[in-house]
Design a protein that fits this description.
543 residues, binds alpha-D-glucose-1-phosphate-6-vanadate, Alpha-D-Glucose-1,6-Bisphosphate, Chain A, domain 3, phosphoglucomutase activity, binds cobalt (II) ion, metal-binding, single chain, seven-stranded mixed beta sheet, alpha/beta
Amino acid sequence: MYVVTHPTRPIGGQKPGTSGLRKKTKVFMTPHYVENFIQATFDAIGGARGKTFVIGGDGRYFNAQAIQVILRMAAANGAARCIVGMGGLLSTPAASNLIRVREADGGLILSASHNPGGIDEDFGIKYNTANGGPAPESVTEAIFNRTKTLSRYNIIEKQDVDLNALGEATLGDMVVEIVHPVTDYAALMSFLFDFNAIRALFASGFTMRFDAMHAVTGPYAHAILEEQLGAAPGTVVNGVPSPDFGGGHPDPNPVWASGLMTLMMGPDAPDFGAASDGDGDRNMIVGRGIYVTPSDSLAVLAANAHLAPGYTDGLMGIARSMPTSRAADRVAEKLGIPAFETPTGWKFFGNLLDDGQATLCGEESAGTGSDHVREKDGLWAVLLWLNILAVRKQSVSDMLNEHWATYGRNYYSRHDYEGVNAGAAERMITDLRERLSTLPGTAYGPLSVIEADDFAYTDPVDGSVSEHQGIRIILTQGARIVMRLSGTGTVGATLRVYLEQVEEDPSRFDRDPQDALSDVIAAAEAIASIRETTGRDAPDVRT
Ligand code: VG1
Ligand code: CO
């Protein structure tokens, strides 16, 4: 095997964010960009020699080209085997599962997740470790540090591998194994959930719409929902992965999945609606006439997970990211199990899951998952909902109302200001940080601040500390404001303002969240002068 050791120079800015390295696709297409990052990754993990990697992506523009480069570099760096999803496709949770069941040393996932795709949009690369989860900060830091000193990368000169030919082939001295992206994942789902009960639910006339948003879950949803569970043909829409996601924004929220929302709120709504994102790790849940916020979904799933075969023994604990509403904490309290509050990003759940301290995890950004893999998992959440609905034989709306009656309703909304001036946004956060100690006791309309801090997290398993994870302002009347800057964007800065207020009075459970949160929204504006900082009258996206 002839290995070319190619001289290179460090490329600035190859710093992984909340979930891997994300840039404009054209940046990834500049000479040596992918090569440098991959070599830095291999170097940072002690080399690739003798190792097995799982490789796949969400099918966006440049997916296959990047995979071919990675395969040539893995071979040149001495990897023993690469397991690749057919067509270069693997959803993020399916990749996590494959790493685990095949006991691979790690994986490379090509995706910019919910960001749009195409030559003028976004691309990304994420490294996952042997537990199947996103690399922890210690590893992403090591990768970034290596990108700063890199002077060569190894690659072999070979023809492209046929990514559509199932089975084994060789590339240099390395085995490339092409697997069907759905098989192992579907087997795991049938183990966790009562497929017979869900099949009976569909057979009884239960109707559903699943919007795959032209992204990677299409093949998974077709196979599992329609073929295995008997949902009517046509249940899955936008089910063929497209390099630019049909020109859309594969982010399952009421704004970007507006077609599904319109259907679910209209006269022809099916019983249940769901959507997933670019790489299949997010989920949106909608009942007939009722949207379920991701934070509520986590709480409802936690309260009912024991109804599914995979969770009959109950939960060890529930973990949520800090900005996620505290609805799940109330369930944990009632169940008498621990509740964990982690920084944003799935990598922070890894240790809790590995250590058996948490069983269910969730984020307000439409990520929910469990210890079955080490990533959030869109279709898993949809199947758990279906399993619970099949057992409880209730509508989503009745389930949600019953949940609120038991636990109270945590009204919740996130306001995003996208593509704002990065310097101004950072100054706003820094300034807020400096004023935190002056906030307690100050009043904003009917609300006053109880405490305010700059969220820092100490991992209970390995003791590692992550600081500056967001500004947290706790107010009276069960209100809370969180502010942080996104770590997944590719243009300017995105300011995220997370708003929450608890309502205990059942006669006030059917308010419009924006209305119910108006005092909290006004307090956030008064505290942080968001309009002035962003130069915007209103957020770009409200979820
Ligand atoms: C966002 C979400 C975060 C999520 C991350 C990756 O990060 O807020 O909850 O884990 O995206 O999701 P940020 O830093 O932009 O707020 V995915 O589905 O894009 O991999
Ligand atoms: Co995603």
